[in-house]
Amino acid sequence: MSQVDDIAARIDSMAMPDVDYRDYFERNQRDVTKLKRIYEFTDELEKRLTSDDGIDGAKLPFKKTHSRFAFAPGDVTLWSGYNGHYKSMMTGFVALDLIKQGERVCIASFEMKPTSTILRMARQHCSTKQAGLDEVGRLMADVGNNLLLFDHLGQMPPERLYGVIQYAAKELGIGHFFIDSLMRVIPGEDSYNQQKDFIVQLCRLAIECDCHIHIIHHSRKGDETKPPGRYDAKGSGAIADNVANSLIVWANKQAVPGMPQMLLVVDKQRHGEWEGGLALKLNHDSLTFSEC
User: Fold this and answer.
1) In this predicted structure, what is the pLDDT of residue 35?
2) C-beta separation of 254 from 209 below 8 A
3) Alpha helices in 84-143, H assignment, sequence order
4) Model confidence, pTM
5) Looking at the predicted structure, is the pLDDT value of residue 127 above 70?
6) 262 near 280, Cβ under 8 Å?
7) From the centroid of its chain, how far is CA 115?
8) What separation, in Å, do the N-terminal and C-terminal C-alpha atoms of the chain show?
9) Can you tell me the distance from the alpha carbon of 180 to that of 164, in angstroms, rounded to the nearest whole number?
10) C or N: which end of the chain has fewer Cβ atoms within 10 Å?
11) In a 10 Å sphere around its CB, with 0-12 CB exposed, 13-18 middle and 19+ buried, how is residue 192 labelled?
């Protein structure tokens, strides 16, 4: 075979195969319904553009971010940071504020008993150093049926977790599902393909269930005098690539001069233009966070 014939044969092998597109669409009617004319998005656009700040979704508890960031339905947010930098404390505080906004929340903490989570959230809710029966009662009365806790400690197989999320969202009306943490679902730090598959599946579930999924994950050990980045999260870079948002929680534990006591860094925001850090203060008595 001549060189010309060889090249021609390669081109032929690369050609698109014959496809019966009509048969394909008849077998995949869901895809047909997703082909929409531009004006079919009018109501969705009007809702977004006539909101108070033009951002669709629930807010963080901090006013400086209200016009810059939101948790949109159908998305996944990665919360990362060094071990011991108050990620779970922060997400509990955020969960309480989401409930105040009228959202229904489920927390699946595989690292801490539900009773411990409740006591910590009672301190935050009542702004008190200790939580007793009165504070717990106030928390229960105020959150009502809008806070659920998944009572499971230790490892959680991904397939079981998918089912829990689906049931919580579709049957119980959960709008925000917190997973604490990724290492309790995919334990191997070097299980890159499993981590990628898990995050991709969470993104699919968030869209299918029209809820927001929050996943907490540890950053690799590093220079704790400065915040890590989203690609410093342990394991596969596909984790940060696939999520819609990446939020980093950093505590100034080394008393670095010129740095605030706490930083919440928006390191990625798929549906917004703003990325940056927000200086915060931590009240060690009530375990609450406030803007500097």
Assistant:
1) 75
2) no
3) 87-100, 114-126, 133-143
4) 0.86
5) yes
6) yes
7) 23
8) 75
9) 14
10) N
11) middle
